[in-house]
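Board notes (copied after class):
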Amino acid sequence: MPPMPIRLTTPTTRPIHSAWEVVNGSAAITTGRRLSGCAASVRVVRITTWNVNSAKQRVPRLLAWLDERRPDVVCLQETKLTDDAFDELLGEELTARGYTVARHGEAAWNGVAILSRVGLDDVAAGVPGAPGFPHQEARAVSATCGGIRVVSVYVPNGRAPDSEHYRYKLVWLAALQAMLGDAPREVIVCGDMNIAPADNDVFDPKAYIGQTHVTPPERAALAELQAGLGLHDLVREHWPTERVFTYWDYRAGMFHRDLGMRIDLLLATSAVASRVRAAWVDRQARKGKGPSDHAPVIVDLDEAPDGDIGPVVPPPSAPAAAKRASARG
């Protein structure tokens, strides 16, 4: 199939405040109780991001994980559900756990959401000025939670260098940077960036030669986003030299051999970064039957309920690179 042309369109974005509101082409808030307006008085402690790779397939694992880790704010990607379907599937369960939800989805593809127990204000869906492929895709939703502007993003994959989708990815990132230029002092961008920032964020740089996620233009676009807005890579700054991955392909035993990539990031301004007390990848959530191919990433602000236990919990028992080194020794 020939690549689809890019058509630049601007999504409809506006604040949404009322409970159970559904807006075509925008986001919606769902909640069983009114939390809007309390963001300034409740402080976020735990912020997480997780590409669940289909909320429908991940329901039992997601709910159990929420009960175990008890995050205050959760950014989800690849929900792959329309807003109505998301509500039907998860609305009651999330309400029972005290979460208000802003979701921006579509059937079968993409889809993002923010779950918050510390307020959810000024919700906006999409990225103004971002391209479509060819239509607008559900790749970003923003809200203010506990005084922090939270942005959940699912950056386009890019598919192959120099393809139409690759160019779409770069233009989309530029539009995201432009949107964030007007953001307040306390901002965190969470999600699947589909870019490994540096060579130490992949298990073997040579394995990715000629592929997306590691090309100089992609990395330059991400670096420009960070530098232009003063965003800190919270996990990498907390663990500058550690082996940390967030994604492992389902094939060839990549997870069990710890052959992964770090492409799920939390990027925050200095006002948020200065509050970090722990930053880690919840590798346990990638184990077992029916997992996502991504693991959740967790950042604790002001206090760390589980201690500073990272960078990866639990650590892989025998990474492939370590085995090779041991064999050579």
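Comment from the instructor: Residues 60 and 73 are 19 Å apart (CA to CA). Residues 1-26, 31-40, 322-329 have pLDDT under 50 and may be disordered.
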